[in-house]
Amino acid sequence: MRTLLLTVICVLITACSRVEQEPSQELKIAAASDLTLAFHEIGQQFEKQTGTKVTFIFGSTGQLAEQIKNGAPFDVFAAANVQYVDELNDKGLIVPDTRQIYALGRIGIATKADNPLVVQTLEDLLKPEVKKIAIANPNHAPYGLAAKQALEKAGIWEKVKNKLVYGKNISDTFAYIESGNAEAGIIALSLVKKGEVRFQLIDDAMHEPIQQAIAVIKKTKHEKQAQEFIQFLNRSAGQQIMKKYGFVIPKGK
């Protein structure tokens, strides 16, 4: 009896040791803020289908890229600008054959739904009633850069520069409009919820294409699951969700 008890204890200790050594099946995905609504929905479906838990860390693409350079323990990087993924690739920080463009983003002019001010064109931002205009910081946020390019192409960048307030990322920019701290702003179509803001799409010829890229981080301990997430994103179910939130799927996907 004593021998049997010792055997059982040894088996349990060995099993517990194995569980402790096995890496947690959880993906940490660094994602651009414009993906907040779409990726939460995609993440829920991915978890149901695969059993792999997904945790998203949303922020500006440039700041997330810096964190990855400094060793942040992410498994996947979903950027709002392919340039940042390519820079990480040049530094040997991503799995090269996982890099791909998964969507094109769109921007537009937004005002709070209950604001009587009418702002439908970029030129309307010159109205004296528009005292503050929110955009994401163009130095590290791709949607902010696209907003700057649109304002420059419209010939009004210098005229509105003193009105600008900069969000750390596109979600932060949206918060300026929601709170009333900015009368208008240029935000991502993907963050617009019906009834929250009035939104006017900006012609995509006014700025460089917002090519959004994704890749697996080389230091990941969950490469198989990370690749599965990217595959899910690019399959029909993932693409339908992305389209639902206003993203354009690149041709050939």
Automatic annotation (TrEMBL):
Residues covered by the Solute-binding protein family 3/N-terminal domain: 26-249
Binding site for molybdate: T61, I170
One Pfam family, short name: SBP_bac_11
Signal peptide: none
Gene Ontology MF: a single term: molybdate ion binding
Keywords assigned by UniProt, alphabetized: Metal-binding, Molybdenum, Signal
Highest taxon in the source lineage: Bacteria
PROSITE patterns listed in its UniProt record: PROKAR_LIPOPROTEIN
One Gene Ontology biological process: molybdate ion transport
Family: Belongs to the bacterial solute-binding protein ModA family.
NCBIfam families the record matches: modA (TIGR01256)
Stated name of the protein: Molybdate transport system substrate-binding protein
Species name: Thermolongibacillus altinsuensis
